[in-house]
């Protein structure tokens, strides 16, 4: 077996709307070995991973995969299930996968499966291939290309149990803690977008200006003052006391002499704790004398320079969870303990409870393993025990003075037993400190009765309270405490998403993106958009370079300034990792023509249309899919589109025939060019938007491709509900200038020369530009600087050369910075071949590798009346050269030649 390539899809993609890992695997000789030919293989695999017997596969019931293997299925399909099962055994919640044969490549399969996180998911894929390989007959074993799947499991463990243990460590290391994970699950249940912002627990919920952030149970609304007050236990207790809430008397001390005097004043027993500790660290309870007091002071002083000593309240420890001024859960916290059986030592009993699968290290699981350390040893000594003590049958041995889960404690749900007055006390405590999410620790002998009657009180208020004890208590009813937290961030009726407009197609994407952004800006939105020239935030370019992929889209969605996002969505990003969002409000496919064929499995325009359709397949159910009625391949995409379809057409007769006519007759929405105006057809009525010649970017209507772009932009914004007058204002203010649309039909008149800078990088774009150039013919020579990226096929390069020969009087073929592995000069040679094959005069063909040199050559060769067309890759760099030409004295470029021309 050989790993050919892999992809990590983080958004909707060609194969699914869900994030998935794809591993392309060449089975080689194993293509002739389905599972029913591999004697004993299925049985050995089930022995290694018994959970596979529950996989339903295509049968939809337990045992389905076993049946498929008995009937005969390919190893790629088996590896998919193994990768899923390995992750499940490691604690990841993943269930979905699929395997597809690769068209025109016998024996090659795309294996796809869900993942909890990218590192453990890819490691599971690697381990799955390795495991299946070990179960094959010796003559069929052997894998190559595993290094493509990352280094998390560079050396595959020797047995399945060790493999799962290694994967579990990866899942824990790269996953979210229980509190954060619970909030994320609730957000996902409500279809709130979730973005992890770091390798820890910092998570963004929502997008753009509607986003909120959490880190475990700390939210973006958590008060810094409140958190600081909660951290200063003495100040917090004083504040609570001043508003009449029950708290123990206590004092702040700095040394042993002060603490002894304070304990005598307060009366034994006392509690000693650090001023700003957490998770029970450095806390000692039931301190009865000066000897214990000294040790307790040292333990607290190791955590904080200042130490609190306070009255020891009677009762058991209860954690009250308050969210947004409402009590949502209460748990009784039980200190870590063991129950004797008369045979085993305390050490053996601890090992037994640590074997509970619910226990893990730190906060990774719902319970924490009891850690044997000096604190535990000291606590046992204080109570006359050691690890070698054998407790009597039924004897309870407490292992820690605090009841925190982080020290191995357990929890019993008491939410339904709390006296209303105790609930009110907890809520007041949280509000008094200004915490939106607070854990209020209360000691009470009977939580069912008022603290006022039984005694007890608040011993602590915590910011960032853990949710584990409520989500999965050791006893009692689990409480969905994540729901009120998310509800406090996104109350009923509020929005978590900014509108997303996604645009794909072979040509026109960048200009349409900018037109839509211009219209939305006119409507009052702060717009973020991405294009091949960069990431733009509220009218300013924030990041330079090609930003038409999913990473750039995510940058915009993370920006808190943005009210609306407009994304250029290119083929490459979709194939590489899917979309940069889970769903869009409006998605558009502008056209599908030949471009980038022969790359990444896209070998035909039909393949390309399938890639482009991912955008409209990801439209929300109540969103809109915008499609070009003039393009047959785009019309065919309609069957895949979600939401409501809106057609656009540059053909005025479209309203009388075809899909647009039927659509309008059914009350649908369409945008068409009628009588040289853009017209919105909706609900059986027609609404004129703007005459085409009043849109500067159309050059009086001559630039038909920009007319189509304006139609698409109108359709997208009208579908979202932007008023017609606002759409017209946005289009009327959109110019074919470098400022509004860099590198897209930027026209400069200088020294009698017309210079057109346009990123025409495929036959369709060059053909559309040729129609505009017809308006310039007869004035002078048409000169073109033409080039393509190096990843195009040889035939594409020859074809573009032949096409250029039919358009321009003189041609400068250039290569530029994107040769992509081709030797310098080879692309120019192929384009020149194409031009010469049409009978083009060799004297009119020029070749330069560097596009800057090629630009200067064209500008120096031009004469008044000529039209110079530049199709650059380095748009900023070439534009700077054009500006230099426009601002320079003619002699700087033309020298004596211009003087000679002036003299006749």
From TrEMBL:
Residues 237-490 form the ATP-grasp domain. The lineage of its organism: Bacteria, Pseudomonadati, Pseudomonadota, Alphaproteobacteria, Sphingomonadales. It catalyses: [L-4-(L-arginin-2-N-yl)aspartate](n) + L-aspartate + ATP = [L-4-(L-arginin-2-N-yl)aspartate](n)-L-aspartate + ADP + phosphate + H(+); [L-4-(L-arginin-2-N-yl)aspartate](n)-L-aspartate + L-arginine + ATP = [L-4-(L-arginin-2-N-yl)aspartate](n+1) + ADP + phosphate + H(+). Homodimer. It holds the Pfam family Mur_ligase_M. Catalyzes the ATP-dependent polymerization of arginine and aspartate to multi-L-arginyl-poly-L-aspartic acid (cyanophycin; a water-insoluble reserve polymer). Its EC number is 6.3.2.29, 6.3.2.30. Signal peptide: none annotated. Keywords: ATP-binding, Ligase, Nucleotide-binding. This is Cyanophycin synthetase. Transmembrane segments: none annotated. Gene3D superfamilies: ATP-grasp fold, A domain, ATP-grasp fold, B domain, Mur ligase, C-terminal domain, Mur-like, catalytic domain. It is an enzyme of class 6 (ligase). In the C-terminal section; belongs to the MurCDEF family. It comes from Blastomonas aquatica.
């Amino acid at each position: 077996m050989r790993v050919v390539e892999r992809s990590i899809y983080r958004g909707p993609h060609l194969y699914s709307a869900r994030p998935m890992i794809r591993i392309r695997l060449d089975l080689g000789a194993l293509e002739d070995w389905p599972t029913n030919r591999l004697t004993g293989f299925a049985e050995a695999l089930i022995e290694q991973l018994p959970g596979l017997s529950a996989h339903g596969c295509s049968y939809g019931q337990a045992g389905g995969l076993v049946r498929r293997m008995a009937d005969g299925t390919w190893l790629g399909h088996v590896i998919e299930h193994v990768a899923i099962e390995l992750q499940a055994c490691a604690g990841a919640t993943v269930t979905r996968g699929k395997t597809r044969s690769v068209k025109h490549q016998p024996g090659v399969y795309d294996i796809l499966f869900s993942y909890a996180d990218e590192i453990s998911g890819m490691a599971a894929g690697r381990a799955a291939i390795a495991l299946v390989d070990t179960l094959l007959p010796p003559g069929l074993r052997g894998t190559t290309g595993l290094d493509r799947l990352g280094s998390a499991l560079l050396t595959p463990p020797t047995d399945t149990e060790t493999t799962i243990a290694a994967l579990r460590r990866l899942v824990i290391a790269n996953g979210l803690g229980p509190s954060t994970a619970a909030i994320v699950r609730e957000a996902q249940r409500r279809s709130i977008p979730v973005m992890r912002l770091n390798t820890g627990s910092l998570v963004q919920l929502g997008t753009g200006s509607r986003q909120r952030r959490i880190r475990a149970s700390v939210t973006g609304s958590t008060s810094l003052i409140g958190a600081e007050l909660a951290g200063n236990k003495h100040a917090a207790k004083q504040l609570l006391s001043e508003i009449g809430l029950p708290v123990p008397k206590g004092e702040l001390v700095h040394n042993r002499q002060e603490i002894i005097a304070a304990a005598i004043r307060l009366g034994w027993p006392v509690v000693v704790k650090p001023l700003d500790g957490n998770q029970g660290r450095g806390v000692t309870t039931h301190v009865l004398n000066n000897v214990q007091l000294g040790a307790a002071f040292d333990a607290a002083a190791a955590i904080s320079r200042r130490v609190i000593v306070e009255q020891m309240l009677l009762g058991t420890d209860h954690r009250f969870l308050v969210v947004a001024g409402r009590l949502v859960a209460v748990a009784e916290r039980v200190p870590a303990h063991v129950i004797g059986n008369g045979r085993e030592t305390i050490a053996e009993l601890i090992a037994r409870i640590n074997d509970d699968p619910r226990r893990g290290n730190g906060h990774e699981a719902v319970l924490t393993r009891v850690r044997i350390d000096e604190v535990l040893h000291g606590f046992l000594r204080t109570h006359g025990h050691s690890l070698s003590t054998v407790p009597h049958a039924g004897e309870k041995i407490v292992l820690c003075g605090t009841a925190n889960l982080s020290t191995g404690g357990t929890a019993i749900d008491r939410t339904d037993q709390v006296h209303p007055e105790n609930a009110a006390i907890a809520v007041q405590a949280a509000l008094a400190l200004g915490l939106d999410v607070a854990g209020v620790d209360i000691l009470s002998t009977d939580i069912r009765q008022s603290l006022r009657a039984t005694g007890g009180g608040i011993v602590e208020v915590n910011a960032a309270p853990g949710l584990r004890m409520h989500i999965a208590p050791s006893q009692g009813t689990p409480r969905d405490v994540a729901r009120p937290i998310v509800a406090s961030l996104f109350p009923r009726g509020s929005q978590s998403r900014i509108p997303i407009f996604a645009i794909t197609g072979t040509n026109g994407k960048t200009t349409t993106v900018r037109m839509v952004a211009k219209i939305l800006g006119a409507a009052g939105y702060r717009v973020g958009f991405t294009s091949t020239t960069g990431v733009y935030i509220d009218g300013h370019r924030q990041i330079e370079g090609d930003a038409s992929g999913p990473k750039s889209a995510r940058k915009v969605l993370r920006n808190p300034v943005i009210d609306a996002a407009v994304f250029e969505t290119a083929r490459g990003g979709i194939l590489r990792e899917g979309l940069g969002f889970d769903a869009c409000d409006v998605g558009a496919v502008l056209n599908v023509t030949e471009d980038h064929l022969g790359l990444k499995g896209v070998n035909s325009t039909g393949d390309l249309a399938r890639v482009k359709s991912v955008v409209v397949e990801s439209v929300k159910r109540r969103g809109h899919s915008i499609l070009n009625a003039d393009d047959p391949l785009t019309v065919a995409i309609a069957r895949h589109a979600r939401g409501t379809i809106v057609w656009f057409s540059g053909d005025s007769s479209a309203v009388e025939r075809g899909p647009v006519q039927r659509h309008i007759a059914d009350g649908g929405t369409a945008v068409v060019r009628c009588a040289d105006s853009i017209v919105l057809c909706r609900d059986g009525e027609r609404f004129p938007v703007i005459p085409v010649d009043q849109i500067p970017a159309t050059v009086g209507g001559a630039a038909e491709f920009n007319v189509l772009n304006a139609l698409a932009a109108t359709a997208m914004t009208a579908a979202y509900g932007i008023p017609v007058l606002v759409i017209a204002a946005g289009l009327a203010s959109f110019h074919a200038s470098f400022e509004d649309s860099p590198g897209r039909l930027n026209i400069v008149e200088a020294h009698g020369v017309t210079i057109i800078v346009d990123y025409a990088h495929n036959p369709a774009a060059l053909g559309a530009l040729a129609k505009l150039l017809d308006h310039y013919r007869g004035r002078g020579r048409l000169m073109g600087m033409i080039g393509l990226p190096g990843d195009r096929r040889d035939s594409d390069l020859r074809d573009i050369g032949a096409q250029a020969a039919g358009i321009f009087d003189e041609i400068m073929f250039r290569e530029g910075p994107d040769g992509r592995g081709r030797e310098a000069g080879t692309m120019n040679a192929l384009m020149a071949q194409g031009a010469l094959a049409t009978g083009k005069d060799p004297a009119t063909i020029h070749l330069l590798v560097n596009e800057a040199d090629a630009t200067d050559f064209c500008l120096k060769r031009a004469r008044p009346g000529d039209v110079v067309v530049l199709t650059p890759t380095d748009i900023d760099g070439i534009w700077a050269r054009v500006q230099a030409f426009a601002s320079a004295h003619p002699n700087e470029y033309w020298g004596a030649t211009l003087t000679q021309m002036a003299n006749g």
